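Q: What does the assembled structure look like for these inputs?
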Amino acid sequence: MGWIGETVDSIKSIQIRQLFTQAISLGMIVTSALIIWKALMCVTGSESPVVVVLSGSMEPGFKRGDILFLHMSKDPVRAGEIVVFNVDGRDIPIVHRVIKVHERENTGEVDVLTKGDNNYGDDRLLYAEGQLWLHRHHIMGRAVGFLPYVGWVTIIMTEKPIIKYILIGALGLLVITSKD
Amino acid sequence: MHSFGYRANALLTFAVTILAFICAIASFSDNFSNQNPSAQIQILNINWFQKQPHGNDEVSLTLNITADLQSLFTWNTKQVFAFVAAEYETSKNALNQVSLWDAIIPEKEHAKFWIQISNKYRFIDQGHNLRGKDFNLTLHWHVMPKTGKMFADKIVMSGYRLPNAYR
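A:
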């Protein structure tokens, strides 16, 4: 009971100016993270410069939980590149390797077929109904670098959202009750 | 300033920074490796060469692939992904690349190999342009590191030609 009284006292004793300072510092941290993310999007030319590998279709090269750094340049798509693409109607991007390229003479448009290294068949089963080839606008970026295991944090937070809430709650509590 | 929480936080930040730095250096060291891979591909046999019901040409080949990719492996290499692609041009398409075979090489010892197989993936054209077509066979490789930047390169072998008539 005395502990509850102490907490109530400490919340009552927060001055309004101190509260604003803390809120603004928190806001600055969140905003600078956002700035860094948007700057990365600009530099790499891709809508999502970092992706987490979610499935085992590219093993043993990329395992579930690895993160990939993407880059999208105007260079034409060529066989062997590892590309990240979105299928129409699905929002989870897929990371697979290009195995076939047919590039048109005049327009430079390109038909692309992909396949996961660890899959038996190509990706036609994953494409939209009746779609045989991917086109340039489906491709979000090429994988240029990779870091192992770092993506598990994101996977855990997505699959067990309760952990995300616990973390944010604990962070919020820490901010409110800290002395400086 | 000296509470457990502060110390744990400082330690964790420092550890993560050092880890990131080590990963970057490991990846950077890959730039200094001396690479001289070699390969040869022979077409042993054209198994069949037909026009499919909906109009596209398809050919099935038996290939003899000899390669030595051992110099591509560094201490930071997890695997090398090698594949052979047929590359040619047609009147409609400026470039066609069709992957015929690929393999994952997990270790340096497996990187010097000799293999005779028929094409793993179907060699299908967009159209019926393959009769008498000259094409290149290119061995591509993709070095996937334990951490950091991936490297890719290729050897182009030209002078291959498909027969003038279906069989």
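Strands of chain B lie at 38-51, 57-68, 77-88, 93-105, 112-118, 123-124, 134-145, 148-149, 151-161.
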